[in-house]
Amino acid sequence: MTEASIQGHGSAKRLLAHTPFSSVSHCPSRTPRFTNASVSRRLVASTRASRKQPEEEEHDYAGLLKKTWKIFSLSPLYKFKPSKVCLTKYERSLDVAFSQVKTQGWSTETFGNEKTFFSLYEGLNFNHNDAQAVQIQVVEKSDSGGQGSIVLNALLICVDLDGSPVPDHLSNSFTYYPVILISGNKARTDVLLNWLEQHFDCQTSHVCFSNNDLRWMLGMWSSQAVAMKAFPVLLQYSLADLCDGISTIDCKFEAAFCSELWERLNGSAFSREAVNEAEVNKFVTALEEHLEYTMHIMFSKLCLSEVGTSVAYVSSQGKLKLFSNSGVFPALHLICEIVKDRFQDIHYTLT
Amino acid sequence: MDLQREIITSVISRCRVSSVRETLACWDRLSSSQLNNSVFKNGTKRKMVEHLVEFVQENRLNDDILGDLELVYMQLHSRRKIWLVYQLLGNDVSLNLDPRTLRSKFLKSLQLKWKDGRVLGNMRVFAGAVWLRMNLGQSMIRGGSGKLPRVYNPNHSVFIVTFPGSPYVFINKAAPRLLNVVTEGVVDALNADSLKDIKLSGHQVSSLADIVLTKNSKSMLNRYREQEDRENPLLVGQERKRKAVDPFTETEGLVDEERQQKRIKRVVLEKKLGSEPQPVLETLDYKFNVDFHGQELSGMKCSTSVEIKGTSVLNGLYQIAASGLVKFPLPKHLTAVTSSARNSFTIESAHKK
């Protein structure tokens, strides 16, 4: 990557500062939608649901499981193409971004000899409208020239969205990935997010989940069938704002019990394709009522700070850990939907 | 010499720079002029270690005296460990042993049981309690990965606190293998039948002592807390005070209809949880094995575990109860933590099938 081409990108950015999803925010009057239109969310992939196929063979999501990811949201990327040729181009450009930070001198200690690799990540495309998942790996080469170690992993995902915020006539110029999952240190994460903002004129932000989002996750994921040795269902309430002495209260239920409870309250979840808000509320309220009965603490008035199920553990601060191959779709789909809904709530719908 | 250097390094590196001098002063081996050496005032930890190693060599101090240094460090920094409380059971428990006899009996018993290496024992009286340090050495032959084991492993030191006349023993949380040997040693040395884990644990020795020693107040014990406050120079300014809960304020023109109820609640709360600050505990564990009580579903067994975590859980409970987040009447497992002297409960439904 030469300097001219970097400047090229820079000037492109200036020219396109007024793209609809620009990070330079000067938005016209927005009409936020306060009501959440989608009160029902899907449990199975749309393609699978329509074809009524028997269980497909489970894809092995290597490198995605048992790792703590931080979730960031992205606005649609301008002129991002997930093709082999373009990805090689992006590799060079991001390499330059890393080396630039290093030459600026203020963070020489945190950066080494970075080399980035872009590749397409298979197995996350459940719908033909979805942009193909892209994996970004940053490898730090040691000075001795041996095998480097991976210092940052990132994954641009778009999992089976029902409708995209990008209108049809713009769909050629914009690629929408609602979520980027990153595991790596903060300095490198910042470089990557800055690079995305500058080169694809998008907006990145750290995702925090609300109490309601966490209840959705709890309800949807614990309805799933569980294996013998499943992680317990966790409801962690944070009391740090309410009193000095107690920081958190962790409540754990057996996973098998939760799936049985779901079945008794809302019917079997195995043949279902969607879950609605009333069912989720009923389920979570039942758990909270039981906790209130045993502990006499009014859990329904407290805020969840972390929820865990056999599918995944998620904290309100946007940390995610996935546990099983079968849980990848429900987990990532729900997260993508939540992030997309929030994005659409803020950005007025383009016509 | 390696061992001595390792002990000094491990102690100094765990101290804060500001608390090194206090720790050394309590050790009572250096004179005040030596303590005022500029190394201890504004030197790096590395220099302090070098200085101490020289001092130890000059005065030919042995391993036992250096063990005292670690024991002193632990007495002043006892909040860094989790302490488990055990109760001695048996009819002929000797509760008023001379501390020196206790140490030698204990050491002998451990030396018989521990086959891996040398056992070092130290004893020191602090704040009215007898503190023991047992370092269970490692064998130099056993090294799994071909590496020689460390000469000195601070995690192999187990600390035991006993109170004269009281059947309770505090032991810091250590590897199960070490803990097993040490509990057997305690049983032998004190001539007890067995040692019972009473499911009480926490970081603050003084709070745990408050809980168990006031429980059987028949024995006239000196309060550990008061003595520690006097003897531990690092505790200055760490007094615990309960944050005042907002008093009932009367705003003009505002009528609080539930005023009477709120006042009654406050009275009940003070009666149940006490108006004094509570002992400091960091966790409360509950395991429930009861019928499910949500959404009027019946006949479902449900096992849950609830863990309350924080810097001072009992004071926190008081606060949230005062702010109306706890349903009255208060259940016994919330109010009886101090009186039953445990912070881990298992609750099963009364009617078993």
Automatic annotation (TrEMBL), chain A:
One GO location term (cellular component): nucleus
Keywords attached to this entry: Centromere, Chromosome, Nucleus
InterPro entries named among the record's database cross-references: CENP-L
Cellular localization per UniProt: Chromosome, Centromere; Nucleus
Main location: nucleus
Domain of life of the source: Eukaryota
PANTHER family on file: CENTROMERE PROTEIN L (PTHR31740)
Protein name: Centromere protein L
Provenance organism: Candidula unifasciata
TrEMBL record, chain B:
Natural source organism: Candidula unifasciata
Main location: nucleus
Annotated TM spans: none
Pfam families for this protein: CENP-N
Keyword terms, alphabetized: Centromere, Chromosome, Nucleus
GO process terms (BP): CENP-A containing chromatin assembly; chromosome segregation
Compartments in which it is found: Chromosome, Centromere; Nucleus
Cellular component, GO, one term: nucleoplasm
Keyword Protein biosynthesis: no
Family per similarity comment: Belongs to the CENP-N/CHL4 family.
Keyword Cell wall biogenesis/degradation in annotation: no
Protein name listed in UniProt: Centromere protein N
